[in-house]
Structure formats: structure tokens, C-alpha cells
Design brief:
Elements: E1 16-22, E2 27-33, E3 36-43, E4 54-63, E5 68-72, E6 79-82, H1 111-114, E7 120-127, E8 136-138, E9 143-144, E10 148-151, E11 157-159, H2 166-179, E12 186-189, H3 198-218, E13 226-229, H4 234-241, E14 249-252, H5 255-268, E15 276-278, H6 285-288, H7 292-296, E16 302-304, E17 310-315, E18 320-325, H8 335-357, E19 361-366, H9 373-387, E20 394-399, E21 404-409, H10 416-420, H11 436-452, E22 459-463, H12 465-474, H13 478-486, E23 490-494, E24 503-507, E25 512-513, H14 515-518
Parallel strand pairs: 1-14, 6-8, 11-12, 14-15, 18-19, 22-23
Antiparallel strand pairs: 1-2, 2-3, 4-5, 4-7, 4-13, 5-6, 7-8, 9-10, 10-12, 16-17, 17-18, 19-21, 20-21, 22-24, 24-25
Helix pairs in contact: 4-5, 8-9, 11-12
């Protein structure tokens, strides 16, 4: 679960701040590093986050060919469950020594041997519905707390790799092993658990065990598909997973949310309460931080770089392409140094924009070509270094023969571009519409088809005002030519209600629209 990942460990000091803008219909969370916006999280009642929700689902189909099953959990589309994510009775997986809730794959199983159609299974959402795909689920359920992650179907105690001190790792592991009842499952000790007391662990472990007991009990008197457990809301989850001593301040503009955060922190981390501030000024919290404009421009293709270069970001169904251009920055003497500087700035900005836009999947970066292999390696290292700050899993591959850097970024939900925008009804998502001249030619062909059928009715040709203006300025004789071709009177009229790349043919006497009958192409 992305919210369960903690800040990367950095050697250099960095100012980190969290801003929460909460209203009745929307909660927005901005994460700033050195006063620069690097991440934006949004939660709305009509687009509730599903990651971490636990369901009692019913298997609808088992597909041995792809070693997967489709499970009905009550969503619009059935959830996808892969064989690697199925919990096998009598077997248990090991807790990974990481707080990212990644599981080591179990020994290979045949999906048809462990799942049957109509069978009820407990599953947890690991990936939200994206585009035409339904949610992805796993049988490896986990319940996250502030210091521990409890996994009922695992068997060992793991400690986050980010806790570097070997003695501390051993102390934490032994302490939790003593507290964990026999055959109760597995535990991951999270990064923020360093120097945590036995009493704190015991209190949280008992809470997580009780939570799982209630979920299990609920399966006995409910029928699939049904929701067994809803993951905590965005604000509470953020405080639980991200707010630590590495964050300088958390500012909230809602008195209610402020009280909730303080109350929660008093239970789990009272030493952090002093870092929570209530924004009471008349100037909106995001306006004061000067990030509202950047949020508004989140979906622009072009991002300018400090030196004068820029990057272009183009999302598509298959992948996201990023193109780096030097723009007006031409340097002084050495072109290789000029290119290196532009590419270095671009690498930093690309890593930030991917986090900010929450872009996932396959990403291809086309940096400016460099002759020196050492410079190529510098850019790759620069990109990887800044990707290291990302809470989502990322992987950047070496520069290809074409000079491209291919990378992947974990995608568990729709990007901001997908969730808050919709396809243009005119261009249907292409970003392009037909030119006025093309529309006029299409209308001309439609009228000629009408003449071929021998229709002599007076016709009204309706065009968008921009297209009608093109006719008046560029093709003043169009109506006469159309009347000769049709052998009937033609009236040209502009209609602002039409799309710019649309036209209509209407029989004047009957007022009947005959466009679809004759407008082929």
C-alpha cells in the first residue's frame, strides 16, 4: 500500500512539510520538500480510495490459462486475483523484511487446484480500477498500524530494511516475537519503530489482533460480496504512515480535522503533537504556500526548467513519454556541458513531476543526446537519486542504444490526469479537431450525395461560426457551387451550438435533420 511507505533515508537535511486542505466534499494533501510541492493526494466522497479495503468475495471465474481468477467483490467490474496472491490452506508465506507490504511469492500453485467457481474468499484491494480494468486483489491480507504491520497468513517477524543498526533490528525482532502469540500470523516492524518500547508494541499488536478477529467474525454472518473492513481515511492514514520526526510541520485548515489529528497523535506519538498547526488565516492555506497555481497547471504538457530548457510530458494508454529540449538555453562554449546541465535539471524535474502527477506504468524519457558515456551515467544516476525520494516503487534502466531511459513506476490507482479530467467531447481525447476547410469539404460531399439521389429540397447548411467565417473569407462562391451541384437552393447559416468540427444538413420545409443520411466522410 503506497501510504504505508515511509520517507526515504537521506543524509542531507531537508525541510519537509505537510499541508491539509479539508472541506465537506474534498480533502487535499500537499507534501512539500524544501518549500517545493512534490506530491498531491486527493480524497472525495464520490471517488473513495480502495487500497487496503478487505472484502469477502465470490469467485466468478477461474482461468488456468493465465493462472488467475476473477472475484466479485461488489464493484462494477470483477477483481483480478493472480495465483501468486492466493493463500493456500496449510501453507503460510514469510513476512518480508520491508514495510512495503510486498510478499515473497509462495511456491507455485495451480489456480484451479485452490479456487473453484462460487467459492468465497477473503481478499484485499492492492490496486484500484484503472481505465477499463477492474481492481486487483490479493489473498495476503495485511493490517497496518503505526509501528507494526500484521499479516494473519504469514508466519515470521520481519524488520524494515531502513533500520540500519543491526543490534536494534535484532532487539525489535526478538521483542515482537515474544509478544506474538503462536500461530497468530506474521509481523513487519516498521521504520518508525526504532527505540519503541515493549508496552507500545504490545498495545498496538493487541489492537491489530482484535481488528483481525472482528473481520474474521464478520465473515460468519455476511454473504459475499461484502465489505469486511475499510482502510482508514486519507488524513488518518497519512498521519499514521508518513508523519514522523522527519517531518517539520503538519498544517491543517479545518478545526475538526485538526482535533482528529491531535487526538490520534496523542495515542500513538504524543511527541509529535507540537508539530501540528491549525491554519486560521483568511488567506487559503494552499494560496499562502503558493502552490495553488502549480496544482492548476498540473496537466500542462510543458514544464520549464531553470536554465531555459523544458520537458514535454505526454500520457497515452500504453505509456508516458517525456521529451527533453534545450529551449532558449544555448550555453556559452562547450555544447556537451550545455546539454549535461539541461539534462541534469530535466532528471530532477522528471522525478518530481512523476510523483506530483502520480504517473504510473511504463515511462520513456528522451533526454538530449550526449556523446560522453560518463555524462550519460551521470544523468541516469541523477534520475535514480531523485526517484529514490518517491514512495511508489520505481526502476530506471540503463540508457538504450537510441539514447532513451526506460523506467517503470508503481501504479495502484488512476493518475490525477485520469481521475480529475475527462476526454474532450469534440476531439474524443486526441487533442486534435478537423480544420474548417476539411469540414467544408465533408459538407460539400454530403450535398453531392443528396443530389445523386435526385433530392431537390431546399437545404439549410449549418456550420460552427468559425467554419462559417472561413467560408465567408476564403470560399465566397461556395453556396453557388453547392446550389449548382445540388440543383436546389442552399442556405448557409452559422450555429454556435455546433461543435467546431461538426455540420448539419436540414430540410427547410420540414425542419428535418438529414445529416446522418449523407455525411459519411
Amino acid at each position: 500500500m503506497p501510504l504505508a511507505r515511509a520517507w526515504r533515508v537521506w543524509q542531507e537535511p531537508m525541510k519537509r512539510e505537510i499541508l491539509i486542505n479539508a472541506t465537506a466534499r474534498e480533502t487535499r494533501v500537499a507534501i512539500l520538500e524544501d518549500d517545493q510541492l512534490v506530491e498531491l493526494l486527493t480524497d472525495r466522497p464520490d471517488a473513495r480510495r480502495m487500497i487496503g479495503d478487505i472484502y469477502l468475495g465470490k469467485v466468478e471465474a477461474v482461468l488456468p490459462g493465465i493462472q488467475a481468477a476473477f472475484v466479485n467483490i461488489g464493484t462494477e467490474k470483477s477483481a483480478f486475483l493472480h495465483a501468486n496472491d492466493v493463500v493456500v490452506a496449510g501453507a503460510s508465506s514469510d513476512a518480508d523484511d520491508d514495510e512495503e507490504e510486498e510478499r515473497r511469492p509462495q511456491k507455485e500453485v495451480n489456480i484451479q487446484d485452490v479456487l473453484k467457481r462460487g467459492q468465497e474468499v477473503i481478499v484485499q484491494v492492492s490496486k484500484e480500477p484503472i481505465s477499463t480494468k477492474g481492481p486487483r486483489v490479493t489473498g495476503e491480507v495485511s493490517l497496518a498500524g503505526r509501528f507494526l504491520v500484521y499479516m494473519p497468513f504469514a508466519s515470521k517477524v520481519g524488520v524494515s530494511r531502513k533500520i540500519g543498526d543491526r543490534a536494534e533490528r535484532q532487539r525489535l525482532r526478538e521483542m515482537v516475537q515474544e509478544l506474538l502469540p503462536a500461530d497468530a500470523g506474521g509481523i513487519i516492524v516498521r521504520t518508525v519503530s526504532e527505540d519503541t518500547s515493549r508496552e507500545t508494541f504490545e498495545r498496538e499488536l493487541n489492537s491489530l489482533l482484535g481488528q483481525w478477529k472482528r473481520i474474521n467474525k464478520k465473515t460468519q454472518f455476511t454473504r459475499a460480496p461484502s465489505l469486511l473492513h475499510r482502510e482508514t481515511n486519507l488524513t488518518r492514514g497519512l498521519v499514521r504512515d508518513l508523519f514522523s520526526a522527519k517531518v517539520d510541520q503538519l498544517t491543517v485548515d479545518s478545526k475538526q480535522v485538526f482535533n482528529e489529528v491531535v487526538e490520534y497523535l496523542e495515542q500513538i506519538a504524543p511527541e509529535l503533537v507540537s508539530r501540528v498547526k491549525l491554519h486560521e488565516e483568511s488567506v487559503p492555506i494552499f494560496d499562502k504556500a503558493e502552490i495553488e497555481t502549480e496544482i492548476r497547471d498540473l496537466f500542462k504538457r510543458r514544464c520549464d526548467l531553470p536554465s531555459g530548457g523544458y520537458i514535454l510530458i505526454e500520457p497515452t494508454e500504453a505509456l508516458v513519454s517525456v521529451d527533453v529540449n534545450s529551449g532558449r538555453y544555448t550555453g556559452k562554449k562547450d555544447p556537451e556541458k550545455t546539454i549535461l546541465r539541461t539534462n541534469s535539471e530535466a532528471a530532477r524535474e522528471v522525478a518530481r513531476q512523476l510523483r506530483l502527477r502520480d504517473v504510473g506504468g511504463i515511462i520513456v524519457c528522451d533526454f538530449i543526446d550526449m556523446e560522453s558515456q560518463s555524462n550519460r551515467d551521470k544523468i541516469l544516476q541523477e534520475l535514480r537519486t531523485h526517484l529514490g525520494r518517491d514512495r511508489a516503487r520505481t526502476k530506471a534502466f540503463s540508457v538504450s542504444e537510441l539514447g532513451l531511459i526506460e523506467m517503470t513506476r508503481q501504479r495502484v490507482r488512476q493518475s490525477h490526469w485520469q481521475s480529475v479530467t475527462m476526454a474532450c467531447p469534440t476531439c474524443e481525447g486526441t487533442g486534435r479537431i478537423l480544420t474548417p476547410e476539411t469540414i467544408v469539404r465533408r459538407a460539400e460531399r454530403a450535398i453531392k450525395r443528396m443530389a445523386v439521389e435526385g433530392r431537390k429540397d431546399p437545404v439549410m447548411l449549418k456550420l460552427h461560426p468559425e467554419v462559417a467565417l472561413h467560408v465567408l473569407e476564403q470560399e465566397k462562391d461556395l453556396v453557388k457551387r453547392l446550389e449548382r451541384a445540388a440543383g436546389a437552393p442552399i442556405e448557409l447559416r452559422d450555429d454556435p451550438l455546433l461543435r467546431q468540427d461538426e455540420f448539419k444538413l436540414v430540410i427547410k420545409s420540414a425542419g428535418r435533420d438529414i445529416t446522418e443520411q449523407y455525411a459519411v466522410a
